[in-house]
Amino acid sequence: MSFQIIKHYYGDIPEENSGSGIEKKEVVKTAWPLWEVFIRSKQGLDHKHAGSLHAADAAMAIENARDVYTRRMEGVSIWVVESIYLHASNPDEAESLYEPANDKIYRHPTFYQLPDEVNHM
Amino acid sequence: MLVQDMEQIFQDKIDREIKIEPKDWMPEAYRKTNLRQISQHAHSEVVGMLPEGNWISRAPSLKRKAILLAKIQDEGGHGLYLYSAAETLGFSRDEMINDLLSGKAKYSSIFNYPSLSWADMGAVGWLVDGAAILNQVMLCRTSYGPYARAMVRICKEESFHQRQGFDALLVLSRGSKEQKAMCQDAINRWWWPSLMMFGPKDSESTNSDQSMKWKIKRKTNDELRQQFVDMIAEQIKTLGMVLPDPALKWNEARKHYDFGAINWEEFWNVVKGNGPCNKQRLAARNKAHDEGDWVREAAKQYAEKKRNRAKEQAA
Ligand SMILES: [Fe+2]
Ligand SMILES: [Fe+2]
Questions:
Q1: Contact assessment for residue B87 and residue A34, using Cβ atoms and an 8 Å cutoff
Q2: Cβ of residue B32 closer than 8 Å to a chain A Cβ
Q3: What is the ipTM of this complex?
Q4: Which tens digits make up the pLDDT trace of B109-140?
Q5: Which ligand does the CA of B161 lie closest to?
Q6: Spans of chain A, pLDDT less than 70
Q7: In sequence order, what DSSP letters do the residues of B231-282 get, joined into one string?
Q8: Do the beta carbons of residue A14 and residue B211 sit within 8 Å?
Q9: Rounded to the nearest whole angstrom, what is the distance from the C-alpha of residue A4 to the centroid of ligand 2?
Q10: A72, closest residue in chain B (CA to CA)
């Protein structure tokens, strides 16, 4: 046997070994936009990012989100927003954005050492 | 900054167990490895629905049918979580689906074996999902954030898969002579392919370390495989069945089960497209995709029409 064995794991099979014999097709662009899904798990809690999915419109996005993210009563409310409308901070600027908060420990209650009688304040 | 410096900072983050997120700088090979692994994992979930789909209409009771449907629906969801994670690495869903349909992309070889009897639904849940779970539990701590989050969600759903499989086999194992034989037969056929799911032996690997160094993986193939053998060799006692391996034996010194040699030639044959069901699986996926064409198109047109109407009303 002369094949070269490349280390791989479940779910990581080298593509050189393809052998299905099916012709490659043209990429058909469905072009359904991407949506971000936010789920409120319980009345009174924040909506939390759950994941994303593709859908033709908002109504379909909500329906799909229900099927995909709330099959076990994980939610009581769903928000969807088209991913292109999300704006994010730049990770390269993380230092200048968040660093200044680092040396302001007086913003935390533990900074203040009070006498024992009132320290539960 | 030099690329070497960037790589150093990157490795440093990995070493400190800081997750890598989509917008962070990452070595091209890290991106590619993750993309390949996550998309193949997604394809495996999707193709994995086929052997089980085969038995929906023939499940022995309404209860089993409902359970099987729920499980298969979960697998579809797993595929979706993973496709979304893969998309964050800059490859579109359409391209991934296309690579699956054309046969370029790979998926787990296990799904190229046929599901011949109802007992196979039990064996698949217990052994195949069981093997997948060990891998996936490890991947909950993988270094790429979106992949790790998808895995956490998936693992929450998986344990039901393995338990319902064992439960189905348990019923058969306590049934008639024929049912017992069916149970044993399914175990016989799925055992070795399940062991192959963990991939080649560590000693036959050429680039084993990079995935470990980047903490994409945290255990080697052989470690996971051993963990699986130890688990199943114990659980099968409850079924009163045997594993089809005369070499299987508890090794007191190692504190592990020893087991026989795996037929790697068979494994590579299936990977290369010559398994019992490779052609059938891809044909089924292609058929489903083609037949869904008009639905996708109609939904797109409908959404466009609604958008235009909203614009007209606004004007
Ligand atoms: Fe799954
Ligand atoms: Fe599963």
A1: yes
A2: no
A3: 0.87
A4: 999 999 999 999 999 999 999 999 999 999 99
A5: 2
A6: 1-30
A7: HHHHHHHHHT---S-TT-EEETTTTEEE-----HHHHHHIIIIISSSHHHHH
A8: no
A9: 31
A10: B157
